[in-house]
């Protein structure tokens, strides 16, 4: 979690997830976010990270979104049950590990898993905002590490302050 939060504070990275129980009202109009790792894809030809897109990758980029969302909804229901029953925190931790393993396997499989593209679902919204790669610590908050676009944003800031 620390590394995820570090990304926000050092490089101004946006949250790429959208399935948490955190409630945000969607924007009334879609604008291009200022953060370097999310886009509204209003102009695909001018996408912030177009130079990193793997040649031949479709924009928007297909990924197993429905499968991911279905599983996430089931996990959230199980979390609520654990909390409502006041069960031991060890059960919640086990559920988190289960979710992390499944998400990592799902998001790192398929034709576009390790490519840079534009994967729908980011910035707290399931539709209309896109992230650069299928998985990134700014999306799943797990041990996968930063995607290529987030790494570049961090390197840019470190270079700025170290020269």
Describe this structure in words.
The longest helix is centred in the middle third of the chain and has 20 residues, at 65-84. Strands 1-2 form a two-stranded antiparallel ribbon. It has helices at 2-11, 65-84, 89-107, 137-140, 148-162; strands at 119-122, 125-131. The two termini are 29 Å apart. With 163 residues, the protein is mostly helical. Helix 2 runs antiparallel to helix 3. The protein has one domain (2-22, 34-43, 62-162). The chain has 5 helices and 2 strands; from the N terminus they run H-H-H-E-E-H-H. A hairpin with a 2-residue loop joins strand 1 and strand 2 (125-131). It is 42% helix and 7% strand.
Helix content: 40-55%
List unreliable stretches of 5+ residues. Answer: none
Helix-strand makeup class? mainly alpha
Beta-strand portion reads 5-15%
**What is the H/E order?**
HHHEEHH
Query: Mind summarizing the main beta sheet?
Result: 2 strands, antiparallel
Topology:
Elements: H1 2-11, H2 65-84, H3 89-107, E1 119-122, E2 125-131, H4 137-140, H5 148-162
Antiparallel strand pairs: 1-2
């Amino acid at each position: 979690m620390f590394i995820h939060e570090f990304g926000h504070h050092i490089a101004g990275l946006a949250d790429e997830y959208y399935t948490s129980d955190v409630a945000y009202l969607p924007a009334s109009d879609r604008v291009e976010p200022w953060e370097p790792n999310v886009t509204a894809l209003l102009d695909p030809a001018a996408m912030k990270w177009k130079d990193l897109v793997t040649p031949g990758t479709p924009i928007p980029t297909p990924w197993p979104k429905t499968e991911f969302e279905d599983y996430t909804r089931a996990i959230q229901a199980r979390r609520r049950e654990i909390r409502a029953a006041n069960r031991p925190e060890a059960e919640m931790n086990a559920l988190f590990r289960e979710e992390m393993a499944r998400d990592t396997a799902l998001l790192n499989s398929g034709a576009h898993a390790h490519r840079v593209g534009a994967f729908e679902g980011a910035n707290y919204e399931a539709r209309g905002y896109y992230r650069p790669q299928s998985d990134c610590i700014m999306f799943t908050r797990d041990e996968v590490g930063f995607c290529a676009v987030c790494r570049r944003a961090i390197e840019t800031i470190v270079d700025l302050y170290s020269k």
